[in-house]
């Protein structure tokens, strides 16, 4: 029986591409929202689910961060990094110079802004619910239209590809998190994600917390904050660090960090994704 892997759909998205990279043998099941993927994993309907967590241009995906913070039984078991290569595609027979409307998700339109202004200054830009639905939106357009979508969408739809790699920043990538009810065993090249907050806001609280990692030479990949959603001015800090929670020095740092914090939640320890993964 094939392993079922849930993902933020619909089929043809970059999230589906991340699933294929993560496990090409898995049976894929699309869900309409990030929350729906998380709830399916938390309830046991899915063993694992894949959702976007960070883009190199747009930053963190707050829906995913809030899901991990609010669901204490969800963990990050793995990560997949996918290069974002935007394709311009259209209904077969469409003449590129006659395109009047270009559909895509607002983030994709923003990531191709310079290209669109230079190559299609006359075309109206229209927002779609996803880069994949942009293809069907362009097909339904009463005037010549195109869509910005992933390569995968061109494989699932009969289209003419008008251009490839139209994103303004060639190094644009998105990191996807593999959600599960448990994180990953140590591999020797791991990273740990965590969230913590302070009950009382005092001078030096964050410094003292970060010092526990600095004195142990633990590399900090990322730190950011999210509102606690309880009181204005109260924040939850989220960090990604080198190392596994079950191994020193990360294990020692977490033990020390638990003292000055009012909440500490390890969101998961998992293998760090490399291009050759």
UniProtKB/TrEMBL annotation:
It is an enzyme of class 4 (lyase). GO terms for biological process: L-phenylalanine biosynthetic process. Its EC number is 4.2.1.51. GO terms for molecular function: prephenate dehydratase activity. Gene3D superfamilies: 3.30.70.260, Periplasmic binding protein-like II. The keyword Lyase applies. The keyword Amino-acid biosynthesis applies. Pathway: Amino-acid biosynthesis; L-phenylalanine biosynthesis; phenylpyruvate from prephenate: step 1/1. It catalyses: prephenate + H(+) = 3-phenylpyruvate + CO2 + H2O. Keywords: Amino-acid biosynthesis, Aromatic amino acid biosynthesis, Lyase, Phenylalanine biosynthesis. One of its GO terms (cellular component) is cytoplasm. Residues 4-181 form the Prephenate dehydratase domain. Residues 194-271 form the ACT domain. Coiled coil: none annotated. NCBIfam families: PRK11898.1. This is prephenate dehydratase. It comes from hydrothermal vent metagenome. The lineage of its organism: unclassified sequences, metagenomes, ecological metagenomes.
